[in-house]
Structure prediction request, 1134 residues.
Amino acid sequence: MADAQDQSKSAAKKAEKAAKMAAAKAEKAAKHAALPVHGGKKADGGKKADGGKKTDEIIGITVSKTDNFSQWYQEVVLKAEMIEYYNEISGFFIMRPATMHIWNTIRKWFQERIEAMGVEETSFPMFLSQKSLEKEKSHVEGFAPELAWVTKAGDKDLEFPVAVRPTSEAVMYPYYSKWIRSHRDLPLRLNQWNSVVRWEAKQTTPFLRAREFLWQEGHTAHLTEKLAGEEVLEILELYAGIYEQLLAVPVVRGRKTEAEKFAGGYYTTTVEGYIPSNGRGIQGATSHCLGQNFSKMFDITVEDPNDKGKHVNVWQNSWGLSTRVIGVMVMIHGDDKGLVLPPRIAKIQSILIPVGVTAKMSAEDKEKHLKKVDELFFTLKKAGIRTDVDLRDGYTPAWKFNDWELKGVPLRLEFGPKDAAKDVVSYARRDTGEKGTIPIAELTTKVAELLETIQQDMYNKAEAAYAAHRIRITNWDDVVPALDAKNVVIIPHCLVPACEDRVKELTAGRSDESADTPEGQKAPSMGMKSLCVPFDQPEGLVKGETRCLSPECSRLAEQWCMFGRSY
Amino acid sequence: MADAQDQSKSAAKKAEKAAKMAAAKAEKAAKHAALPVHGGKKADGGKKADGGKKTDEIIGITVSKTDNFSQWYQEVVLKAEMIEYYNEISGFFIMRPATMHIWNTIRKWFQERIEAMGVEETSFPMFLSQKSLEKEKSHVEGFAPELAWVTKAGDKDLEFPVAVRPTSEAVMYPYYSKWIRSHRDLPLRLNQWNSVVRWEAKQTTPFLRAREFLWQEGHTAHLTEKLAGEEVLEILELYAGIYEQLLAVPVVRGRKTEAEKFAGGYYTTTVEGYIPSNGRGIQGATSHCLGQNFSKMFDITVEDPNDKGKHVNVWQNSWGLSTRVIGVMVMIHGDDKGLVLPPRIAKIQSILIPVGVTAKMSAEDKEKHLKKVDELFFTLKKAGIRTDVDLRDGYTPAWKFNDWELKGVPLRLEFGPKDAAKDVVSYARRDTGEKGTIPIAELTTKVAELLETIQQDMYNKAEAAYAAHRIRITNWDDVVPALDAKNVVIIPHCLVPACEDRVKELTAGRSDESADTPEGQKAPSMGMKSLCVPFDQPEGLVKGETRCLSPECSRLAEQWCMFGRSY
Prediction:
């Protein structure tokens, strides 16, 4: 599939290079000066001796989210210690503990739910043979250009080169044929957590597009289309749950058009997100019904229980959710101070920082105060709130505030002698900056409430932004201005692939003012592509009457289709 | 490193081929006859209509563990549905849900404990560059012959081929250099769960030696040798705990000799297991102190906190445990009926099977009885016992018994009208075959107790076998006869690599009667290699006096060293 992003490729590459160089330069300078660029917890610098103010500037994000969204994003994931660029091989990223905590939280949530559905875990080899791959024609065509081929072992050439899996349909389905002998073996539902490799020629971006990424891939087989279809939606709803309930990210549920569906599949359902900063749509996760295409190619049949002697091909699904979800969350919630994490997936939900412990204080008073801080810390931990306390010597409270803001901790708790005198703890919300105090007697209940409020408010804010920028349009001339105003659009469409291609061309490079690419450079504006046909269809489309909105299309509209510039 | 197993390679290959062909043949026959070879839960065959007896024979293991250990093992892992051979590419195996449950139990147990130690999770790319790899000379020499090289992406040659990680030292340590700037960044402790690829030329065996395997790899950096050394042992004790507490497998803790240590490391500690059926030792898991070798090559230094201005190289460890543990467990506990699982890692701990429900019973009585079965099932589940109930129609109880025995379920519970009349449930232990009854009123407590007893008895039995076959020897002439009698030996040794090599030669192919290879074929007997220097040293070695036991060595003995034929 062609991608509108190709247009801005060279500009994008330049931008990434520039961002990387800037980051490398800052880091080198910092290493020599022993100053923390990453805001490392135990980094040597940033002490008062060096002048707190100067350090504060260095650890922060150097560009604003509004001015240069792409560089902002790259700095956030790097400086919040989520990602490290793998300089040895381009297009690969290292997932650091801050990332793995989020991924493991998602994994646990999803695993529990699919286990309850009867999905079992498996682990297939990472390599696939040319022969298996070639069984399904559209499938191999979809993935062939991005396959990484192992051709040598040690210093010997392999007789038959093997490819690293880009997805495991062709790895697994020969065994579905072997294991499924009777309708009693159905449904067969297997899932695996692994990494896959797609050697993208396109621009890579941390989390969103990488040559290797972590994901789960579920592969199931059912007796009927109906049973398969029910599961497709059940899984899609779990994907929506990960976005909405864990990551506080709203999504639109829908079906991909023929042009955008999975290579070799029957139909694809999707949850589609939206990035307010550049008005782009982004595919969140997909749950595919493969129909009987693969079961025919891989010979997966059972005897029809209702018609003895007759063999039928099974109905198959595959569904996957990757670490991309984390990138979407960062893009939506982050701000100019850095990462903003929804409390449910934050490893540290609240950070407790002693303040007002001045040099003038007596050693005794200081000890007494820090003892009280310790008590508060243990009270919170005992209540099951994921809390840390920052007792680092030699750092100003202001430096610590910035450091934890950069890392996105949802709630900051401050405790100084003045708070102690009033039996309160002061707090600051990461998402809104709102400040207040909590009586110590109510600390654990109020903190838990605040965290839930933050989670909900973050979702509501993102949902409001999405709702306001999902525009139903019935006049073609309004389309490009709507895109330029950072909207995605919902239009009546014929759903014919050729028409989609033409729509992409018609909406590309037409605005006078060039648009912001995800890489933060001015470039010719990108054409829009179809994101999904939302399940929740607006009113107003009359079948057999309403026409496809494309000015060059003479067909009738089939459904409302969501289009947008996209990742 | 050379391996004594090479001797028997061609015989072994033939044996594997024969076993595979036999399995394939049986399976093909079964598919055509619609009979379950794998004892599949919902397989079509095995019904009374086909004659229970005939089916019972087919689903079972066709060779005895004593007669042909290697074929027995391959049948068990295949028929108990733990493993499927990946026929597309040789040397690779599919891990099925029965395996993944065990691996996930181990993973959870270990993960909780390393998290408590402060180890954080990470995920590095699966590829490494030639340049990184070459930094540590012995390391690259150790792994180069087994590296899988990606040389092409799509149809384009890569400018710089990349290798799939065989282990991640060379992938990770460039970033340790970047992230560790101060002694305050120490200890840095990261772990990842992934798969690695070592393109073995040797015979592969499910779990024990595969070209790709799942494992965890921990990589840590410390300020001092002492701190690194403490962690090495702490992790080794966790590895021993996985074997002893979860898998009911006894191990000997010790240190590898220079000849057998990790390529590029400083010293290697190990837990060593023992397979009674062929008297072979098997390496269980290793925890390495890498010393400062890698930190020098990768430039990982900090300023010495006790000597300002002076830079010191950090001390590093790496430690890994793989799915091999599962193979060791199968080999030790399995019997001629199939798998025998220790209760703590069994997905199904007890299987409840209604019996005595005959055709003569009235529909009403039958319903009443099955209702009671259901009640028992829920009582057990509610008590947290992992239980399933086998209500499959059309299978004889005898067929079901065999099926669950094949799959290793630790405890079978039978409930028939006679049991109901006496308010008891009958049981049969998988490990000993012991039968008895449990009053229904005491069901949950007694079942829980029985499961713990089974766990303990399985361990004790294996421990007794290991203890009886770990022979201290001080007379060289006793060595080969001891090996032939399926022992591993503990001898005074100089620990010099050249002497170890010679000992291997001296003990190879010398017995009149050829020994049993792991592949179940008669072949020239394998020489012994050093397994470890046990931490628990026997009495009787006088330093400066006791001589190395090798008849061709004139050196003094350093320590008691455990040698054996081995995997």
